[in-house]
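Box 4.2: Ligand-aware structure prediction
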Amino acid sequence: MNAALLQRLRQSLAHREGSSLRRKLTARASSDTRVNLADNDYLGLSRDPAVVAAGVAALHEWGASSSASPLVTGYTEIHQQLEQTLAAWQGYAHGLVMNTGFSANSAVLGGLPKKGDLILADRLVHASMLDGIMASGARLRRFAHNDLDALELMLHEEPALDGVIFVVTESVYSMDGDSPDLKRLASLRKRFGFCWVLDEAHATGWYGATGSGLQEEQGACAAADIVVGTLGKGLGSQGAYVLSHAPEVRDALINFAGEFVYSTYLAPSCAAAALAAVDRVKGMSAERSELYALSQAWRDGLVEAGFAVPSGDSPIIPLILGDSDVTLKYATALRAAGFMVSAIRPPTVPVRTGRIRISLRRGLSPAVLSSFIAALKGVSA
Ligand SMILES: Cc1ncc(COP(=O)(O)O)c(C=O)c1O
């Protein structure tokens, strides 16, 4: 290996090590019985019998791989059925399945905005959105997290533009579990005429009468121009999708997005599992109030035990601990006590806001909350 390159890599890794920020990969064993409070399988659908059976049936029918990029032969009837199902469910006319949420966001935000355009993005939007934004050549301004007054001020401040204004938000923020007021965003969109890109990754399945997401929950159905969602979180599968009212968005991705054009397409088994998961989610309407009660019970329990967490009813609860070494200490102790948790540190989150991101799952018993709190108290003692 080139010596200068090795030296550079070692230096940057040592820098991370020194500030307790070095990331390490740990292989999870299938026999690990610890309570998983880290993944995004909020509804437990990745192990749902109907979802697994649909994936297995598709494995037998289509084989283990799509074996080609979508414009060659990778796009199958099952992908088509999935994109149509997702679009109809969430109130859009057009949908396109993508390989990952990361590539969907980077394709949308790297491809649609151009030099001369302006992007107004919430300060905490996901890395995949920023990746796209940086590649787009458009000018970026970031507004304070969930602060729609600040967004409105920026919209007033900007002189008339020849280009397009994009507003970029999530519906449930991945590391904070909080949300913006989507109805207000919808009314700002009407007033100012911007293109609103909304990432519903962490809301799908959890929110809405039919589980289609936070737009449905807040009575702002299909208000965003473009929705990005993933199949790998609440839907218990793998892959992602982009929805739009305008057919041109789908066509532009098919024609210009390298992430779509030049990559082996999502395995049909993942698409089939996601289709079955959508069905399961639609049938869980009666259970959704239990999910919100679960989230509130965890938040109340943590606050009562002296840990500051925000109120809310999303599946993500940030337990902010501050410095990275403190966060690591908690994570290590919790793992030893039987909880799979991950220490989220900068640059994933802002400096000094290291945290345990508690990720809830349908069916967690009250006993788990009690033993989790006991374990937390054990660390802080
Ligand atoms: C808000 C948000 N969008 C997109 C993604 C990426 O989705 P995927 O895991 O399907 O690549 C994530 C993943 O963590 C996310 O949190």
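In the box above, the bound molecule is pyridoxal-5'-phosphate. The first helix runs from residue 3 to 18.
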